[in-house]
Design goal:
Elements: H1 3-10, H2 14-39, H3 43-60, E1 68-69, H4 72-85, H5 87-106, H6 118-136, H7 145-160, H8 170-184, H9 214-246, H10 252-268, E2 275-276, H11 278-286, H12 292-307, H13 310-313, H14 318-332, H15 335-339, H16 346-362, H17 365-385, E3 389-394, E4 400-409, H18 414-419, E5 429-439, H19 442-457, E6 461-465, H20 469-478, H21 486-490
Parallel strand pairs: 4-5, 5-6
Antiparallel strand pairs: 1-2, 3-4
Helix pairs in contact: 2-3, 2-4, 2-11, 2-12, 3-10, 3-12, 4-5, 4-9, 5-9, 5-10, 6-14, 6-16, 6-17, 7-8, 7-14, 9-10, 9-11, 11-14, 16-17
Amino acid sequence: MNIQVLKREWFSNVRADILAGTVVALALIPEAIAFSIIAGVDPKIGLYASFIIAMTTAIFGGRPGLISAATGAMALLMIQLVKDHGLEYLLAATLLTGVLQILFGVLKLGRQMKYVPRAVMVGFVNALAILIFMAQLPQLTNVPVTVYVITALSLAIIYILPRFTKAVPSSLVAIVVMTVAAIALKLKVPTVGDMGELPSALPFFALPKVPLNLETLEIIFPYALTLAIVGLLESLLTASLLDELTDTPSDKNQEAKGQGIANIITGFFGGMAGCAMIGQSVINIQSGGRGRLSTFVAGVFLLFFILVLGTWVKQMPMAVLVAVMIMVSIGTFSWASIKNISRTPRSETAVMITTVLITVLTHNLALGVIAGIVMSTVFFSRKIAKLVFVDKTLSADGSHRTYNVAGQIFFVSVHDFLEAFDFQEVVDRVTLDLRHAHLWDQGAVVAIDRVVIKFRRNGAEVDLIGLNEASATLIDRLAIHNSPDAVKEMSGH
């Protein structure tokens, strides 16, 4: 890393990065505790993971300003492993998760993110906004009226203060003001301390206490592979979102490696596997954070808050953090996708809505995104399949028919392709001009075989011309129409 890059990514936005990192650190505490409880482990496991992963990805990640820590999506995948085998196997799985993610980065799988359609990205963002909002509802159910008052006042500070000054993030001001007010007025409201016990000591290096044998690998590998894939999917989608929000690029393959390194380190220090947190990343960006320093500060201050200011942090009202997350939810949702829904192609709207529904119903971002990608692929294939054109020309003497084919011939388009031919026509010679067509798969080759064999069976001589190199190679490898037993072979082709 040269000096110019170092200055740009670390020290070009120092004041704003430190303030934004502080806001993120405070918001991370209750979430890390909650995700630990979901996974079935002690709260300190999630807290240790959060500050280690944040500091590590700040150094080794590929997206400045991205916040990574313990997450709900990853915690959900750990429940059964912890229940069946215990914490030590979780730590071993975390190490293997990191190794797999580094491998994915080395293989440059991060560049495959360019294949995620825009409609899926919008659905992902909207689903996440809904999930973030839904996650706050338990904190607003069966609680004293004071909780609603604190939440409302916090939201008022968050949205009104920026109209007068943006010197300090309004969310940080809301957290400080409401915490001081709650302590001074001795308000009886749920606090961060009610979520779980904060650790009082630093984590220490230790190897997971599991047998180093094939049986252990068979237990942890399925979990590690799932964690690695889901973690990278969330991290790379979040990186893409921040690319758009900040209009700056990121290195997706380096991010994959950075996530892997972070999970290996946290596994050695007693933490659970984590990944990018889109909600916290958006908080960071909206609070002014842009550089790696903001992520590093979030990790350092998280450690500082739980070890040094733990007594004060425990008294922080959950209501003010709920307000911050509601602000994030509102800011994350793509309201333009609703405003422009009548102008957006129906297929893209269907993909977006499907991604949202599956994600919200399953609480699984990866599942929703995969479903959206599959659905987009189907719609795209159908569109491309319709772009197959076959023009016919007949020689002056009526003995030679030429079919000029243009478009992409593959398994979806072969039906329309075959319907364009008149196999009952009596001609001496048929020419298939494929110079403007491309054959993509075995289905395309089978379609060509059927055309050639049917015409030859009716007594016509058939020529294929204009094949490009890739299509010709596919024909040479798979076609059977020049075989002596072509008609017989066609039945099993």
